[in-house]
Amino acid sequence: MDPVTALRQVAFELERSGAPTYRVRAFRRAAQVVRDLPEAELHRRIADGSLEALPGIGPATASVVAQAASGQQPDYLARLLADAPRPARGPLRAALRGDCHSHSDWSDGGSPPEEMAQAAQALGHEWLALTDHSPRLQVANGLSAERLEAQLQLISGLNRELAPFRILTGIEVDILEDGSLDQSDDLLGQLDMVVASVHSKLRMPADEMTVRMVAAASSPHVGVLGHGTGRMIYGRGRPESAFDPVAVFTACRDNGVAVEINCRPERQDPPERLLRIAAEIGCMFAIDTDAHAPGQLDWLDNGCERAVQAGIGPDRVINTRSAEQLTVRLTSSGEEAR
Predict the structure, then answer these.
(1) Domains in the chain, ordered, with CATH?
(2) pTM of this prediction?
(3) Residue 299: closest CA among 7, 8, 17
(4) DSSP result, 157-171
């Protein structure tokens, strides 16, 4: 195991376990420092014990580098793997071929698109939709039209390098108060995956929120309705948005929009009662990590468990499809919705 890979794997395992961001950043920063270091200098510094003289390298990261360079599995990594073993994959988890919702450091994620894609590839994914935020969400460094166009160019180049793995172009677009979307129709029409989510005025009256969400689900550009209730169940918490679930989920079904089963531990959205309503109505689903870091891409298991409990099988989950199949959005009956 080379030192850069070892440092990134430690960071991945820390992200997967929900470790504090500062700790993850220490290992990712160290990986960048070591990656940029000439090989001869790296070996010299390991030999003379001067690794920690480099900015961004401390005792823990230096130990990982030295042990990996000597051919050992670093002790730090071994402890992480022992503390959080991966569960056996059930049939639904094994059927997933990608993830429809992820973020990079172009908005509020912690790693560049290439690292997110490489992590997804290492997990066995065939594709990953990169869905950074839209411009309205300034607190999350949402992408302007110009920045999104630049990202599309970057992804085009990365896809040539990573083939047959594919990064799907995408966006998590804000659903504005009137139900319109926070990006131009022209640009939305160029994307492989559009996840539409409410991020503002989450406590608006239920009838107004219903109109807002139905309008978004009726857009010809939207493929997934993201974290529908906006709830947060950990920390300070946040209550669910109120809306008519039958009206919203019927609009999703009729327009070929998948209801997201968000796997973030603090979201687990939608809650069980609403998930069952969506299933009974006949919706399709997207089991998504909403990952903001590479290790979070391994959070799909809890979403799969919740889907199984609600009676949702692989045939109702769009990320069991290939990247090519996702270019045609289908209703739950298998007929083209648009």
Answers:
(1) 3-83 (1.10.150), 91-327 (3.20.20.140)
(2) 0.89
(3) 17
(4) HHHHHHTTSEEEEEE
